Amino acid sequence: MTVLLSAQGLTKAYGARPLFTDLSFDVRAGERVGLIGPNGAGKSTLLRLLAGLEEPDAGIRSLRRSARVGYVAQEDVFPPGQTSYQVVLAAVADEPIEDHERATRAAIALTEARISDPDRPADVLSGGWRKRLALARELARRPDLLLLDEPTNHLGLPGIVWLAGLLRASAFVYVVVTHDRAFLRVGGDGVVEIDPAYPGGYCRAPRS
């Protein structure tokens, strides 16, 4: 399978304590990967490195040419005063497409996230709806690879079921950090466990 994203020899430390050292693995076309590990193992940091939002102390992160990467953080931040529709529309503002296509993409993404009131200000949304909006913002960009950090946070059971179904039906590859084992069983095909106890700092296994 085609490699979309490759991490080779990644090392990251804060102060004197390394989170991981010389960590290497690939994310390939068609994969749906759960990223797990004990608290403090560096899962969120690794996801930011894969997203290109942080630089490793050593090692190389390489992305297939023209591949588009989306990222959903644990905490969802939106510009103050913007409606849900404006948040998603702004996500595609730089796309080389016509204005009507931008509007269509935004509307489709909001529908996929089941946001029925796109004119509601984003800063008054509950945690669960903010998470849906953050996902809609990335869906509008049509990623080839989506990186999600604890996306089930703030979602109730109906929201978790919706998210699992959305991901399983998606055409994009994804890597998801989660502590929710039930969600992993539904939404992932394999697991990467980050732990310095393993040779190379991680263990990769298919879904059981």
Describe the structure.
The protein is an alpha/beta fold and 208 residues long. The protein is 31% helix and 28% strand. It has helices spanning 43-51, 84-91, 99-112, 127-140, 157-169, 181-187; strands at 3-14, 17-28, 32-36, 58-63, 69-72, 145-149, 173-177, 190-194, 202-206. Strands 5-6-7-3-8-9 form a six-stranded mixed sheet, with helices on both faces. Helix 2 (84-91) runs parallel beside helix 4 and helix 3 crosses helix 4 (127-140). The longest helix has 14 residues, at 99-112. The two termini are 21 Å apart.
Task: Give a brief outline of the structure.
With 208 residues, the chain is an alpha/beta fold.
Task: Describe the protein's topology.
Blueprint: E1 3-14, E2 17-28, E3 32-36, H1 43-51, E4 58-63, E5 69-72, H2 84-91, H3 99-112, H4 127-140, E6 145-149, H5 157-169, E7 173-177, H6 181-187, E8 190-194, E9 202-206
Parallel strand pairs: 3-7, 3-8, 5-6, 6-7
Antiparallel strand pairs: 1-2, 1-4, 8-9
Helix pairs in contact: 2-3, 2-4, 3-4
Uncertain segments are none
Distance between the ends: 21 Å
How would a crystallographer describe the biggest sheet?
A: 6 strands, mixed
Query: What's the shape?
Result: globular
Write down the Rg: 17 Å
What is the H-and-E element order? EEEHEEHHHEHEHEE
Strand residues, percent: 25-35%
Number of strands: 9
- Label the structural class: alpha/beta
Average pLDDT works out at 91
**Tally of alpha and pi helices:** 6
